[in-house]
Amino acid sequence: MGKTYVYINIEEAKQGNMNKKTIITILFALAALVGQAQVKCHIEGKFVDNKWGDEVVICKMGTDLRVNDAPEWHHKAVNGRFECDIETDVPEMYEVIPYKQYVETASYYYGWFLVENGTVRIEIYGDKSPKIESTGDEGRLHQAMDSVAGVRFRNEMERINRELEEHKEKYFKPEFLSLMQIAENLDRESLPKAYVDSIEHVMDFYYDNERESYTDEGWQLFQRANSLDSLTYPFRSEYYAEHPMLWAYYHVLQSIEMLKFANVYHNFDATPHEQMVALYESKLYNLYKGHPIHEHITTALTALRFQPGKPYIDYNVRNTDGQIVPISSLIRGKVALIDLWASWCGPCRRHSKAMIPVYERYKDKGFTVVAIARERKREDMENAAKKDGYPWQSLLELNDENDVWRKNGAGNGGGAMFLIDRDGTILSTSTDAEELEPIIKKALNIE
């Protein structure tokens, strides 16, 4: 059995209502936990329609199925229904994913739920997120919060989004819909680079000029839905400040993930996400002591603050001899590019290939590349590296063995790059070879 964590009703404790009877109850509960998992959660689910088959994946929140999958996470429905039991040491956030939709589409509807003592009931729909109800204490707290949000803004927002989705021809311009259809089926690996670049250039135009995607009527609806959606994050931070619950910590993680895009998206409003982080650092940090969610948040915040001039972190990797070693031992005394990539990530491989001539020019002058591939099978890495012609060796991060992506704040993205100076200072987080080369030259004292 893992560590034991005791969760007490915070409001009850603050009001001094922890009487002798309550304490005795807790002690009996602790005694009962010896030799068994602390949390036992029963899952009951059904497919409301069969649009996306009869199979779901139930896994920990944040799992990337491209590199980390297990047969026991898959559950087939019988007569439209499925059930399973999950045992954990502590309450943790899980997600349910319609597997066929995940495999066949670029986006999919998923749902979060907290694995805790109690029963979770799930309904899978073909055209919207799963409906999830829980009998657990934390689940009921969150459902109460959801009810308040629904009345204030969410019900109307979801109605508008359904309208936009169900009547695309009415609300989106035909040229935009045509482009989206082309983009969804774009084979970036086999098509000429110039053609792929031209499609992505037009897509970037629409992302930067959202108004051009919509008809006049569609734009009005979108603006209304957007104004309602903007209430979500401020509502969360206000509600969680008054009603702390375990769900809050996972939404802190989500806000940290969103803050990565602060300098990427136009008109990105970082304020509500920064408020969630501030709430964690001022209040939530002191609650749920000992729960592993705190380590996840600390790691995510460290990675979020990666920027030139800051020290890079140390973490374990498996070297080419199969030994677990600290990354610092592989880059010490050199100007090094940490290249996180994957065989299935087209953009990552394009960035890596662009670095080959840069590497060749400076490899004998104190520059090195430490590539780490995130894969499910070794041969996928080896075949991709051979095809792309990388002159450096790649280390293998198999099934997220060492949590390298999470520790670098890359989440479920394909990859990232970090240029590190000889003293371990971050020089750049760019993935552009043209931007990196002059920084490398300067670090190597090359005129």
TrEMBL record:
This is AhpC/TSA family protein. CDD domains: TlpA_like_family. GO terms for molecular function: antioxidant activity; oxidoreductase activity. One of its GO terms (cellular component) is cell envelope. The keyword Nucleus does not apply. It comes from the Bacteria. Pfam families: AhpC-TSA. Keywords: Cytochrome c-type biogenesis, Disulfide bond, Redox-active center. Gene3D superfamilies: Glutaredoxin. Its main location: other. Residues 306-445 form the Thioredoxin domain. It comes from Pseudoprevotella muciniphila. InterPro entries: AhpC/TSA, Thioredoxin-like_sf, Thioredoxin_CS, Thioredoxin_domain, Thioredoxin_ResA/DsbE_sf. PANTHER family: THIOL:DISULFIDE INTERCHANGE PROTEIN DSBE. The keyword Disulfide bond applies. It is found in: Cell envelope. One of its GO terms (biological process) is cytochrome complex assembly.
